[in-house]
Design brief:
The chain is an alpha+beta fold and about 625 residues long. The protein has 23 helices and 42 strands. The longest helix is centred in the N-terminal third of the chain and has 12 residues. Its main location: nucleus.
Length: about 625
Amino acid sequence: MKPVCNICNKAFFCQSNLIRHLRSHTNEKPFSCDICNKAFSRRPQLVIHLRSHTKEKPFSCDICNKAFSLRTTLMIHLRRHINDKQHECDICHKTFILRSELTRHSRTHTNFCNKAFSQRSHLAAHLRRHTNDMRYECDICHKTFLHNWDLTRHLRTHTKEKPFICKVCNKGFSDQSALRTHLRIHTKERPYACEICSKTFARRPSLTQHLLVHTNEKPYACDICNKAFARRSDLTAHSRTHANEKRYECDVCNKIFSQRASLRIHLRIHSKEKPFTCDICNKAFSQHSSLKIHLRTHTKDQPYVCDICNKAFSQHTHLMRHLRTHTKEKPYACDICHKAYSQSSELTRHLRAHTKDKQYACEICQKSFAYHSSLTKHLRTHMKEKPYTCDICQKPFTYRCLLVIHLRTHTKEKPYACDICPKSYSRSDELTIHLRTHTKEKPYTCNVCQKSFTYRSNLTKHLRTHTNEKPYTCDICQKPFSNRSSLTYHLRTHTKEKPYACDICPKTYSQSSNLTIHLRTHTNEKPYTCDICQKSFFNRSSLTKHLRIHTKEKQYACDICNKTFFQRTYLMRHLRIHTQEKPYTCDVCQKPLSDRSSLSSHLRLHTKEKPYACDMCKNSYSQSSELTRH
């Protein structure tokens, strides 16, 4: 009697095979690497893994002498020598590495088309195509089949019959093999293991496809442009780009696709169908590939590894983008101005600067948009419509995307991770902007002075220096500002609000940048150094002012007497001599003064404070000028 697994009832020829199988349920890994402590369920996997440490490559190619650590990798490599096969068939001119393969091949030729087959049953089925012996016909769509079982399976696409039922979840399937694969979801059985990284798979084709990740093998090459692909289906799709073959049309929007699968996925945009659901968090997706990528956020699986710095990624596209940080490659070039970008999305944004194509105009404010969807979203700003509400805090939003982003403030989810540093973000645009700190890219250029900026908002602010536009006005004193942040800072002069507090001393500030500069007085950090005299400063503006001492530059001139000054503040103080303006008032005696330093000096008359002491005689003074005279 065959040994049977008591968990999934699978039968085995011998007890050792059952013991090995049980580890797929228990996740037991008794074979451990002495070097890195990585564990494996089978001893052969450990033996193969050890070669990654010893660099042993026992399998060698007889043609080019290249060595491999795995037999399977060698077999995949041999496909590279497809044009170096010395034994040729006289009938179809197909070539083979071994004479025995040619002999076996020669026996399979038919009298019709010289096509060759590896199995006699396949040859028999093929012969029916020449004799038009497609004996099994569908009564509904008249499609014909070589085999009765093919017709039976096909009929279920019309009847929607799913006779093979899963006993665990009652899900139905149209054929036995699909049910067998599905059952592995419940049993957690993944019998196909990668010998390189120990990753396991429920289906053998998935393992075969995965091995190409390690070998970088692309066995399917295009006959026209020689571009190579890892999967036959990718080659088929690519071939249609040469033939301009686009056969599948969407009945809703008339968009045409080269593959039926692409049309099927596209139709879900219209139907809002999301048939692929995550078993862990119930999030739904329109494509199975999207679900697979999403699952890696739960499993932390990162199968794509950079050969240069060993950083791992969950998606192949993320690895490709990361590699460009090493190669500095910018494959996406603008056809108009030839500016190049590392990401296609950045090129798309850039192209809009050339086209100025904004055909959808708002009837209320005449603002125009490149896309109809953008106009629809914009109209909600007039109607104050906010149809999307957060289920947690009931906050309403104008757009669905804003709701999705907002929900991450509750879940703390940050799905957009930087490939270069460990930083992650809740929004894709935040990641895009952050990446520019690594690439030093400044895609937004001023058409007036050609100055470039990292962010679009900075360019918008900069343009106002040319136009003198100041659209933000203070409601209290009517002072206008060129940007919203300046208005926000200004309002604090009225409200006396200082929300940024120093953790070391009780001092508070109205701007975060001022707090940052202040903290350096505690740490004594002076990151800005003069290249001429090596003097260091707490902030950049102090360095800029200091440099004018060396350059003798006095760019601020008085319009009344033409006197020039190094700094704007000096000019403003000087102008009060002409205007007789005295905006600073003493709280004790109400005396008006023209500048803040004069007020500080005056206050010492009331406080009797004398901070300036003589080092020789210990006399002290309230003002530095008095000490100098002394």
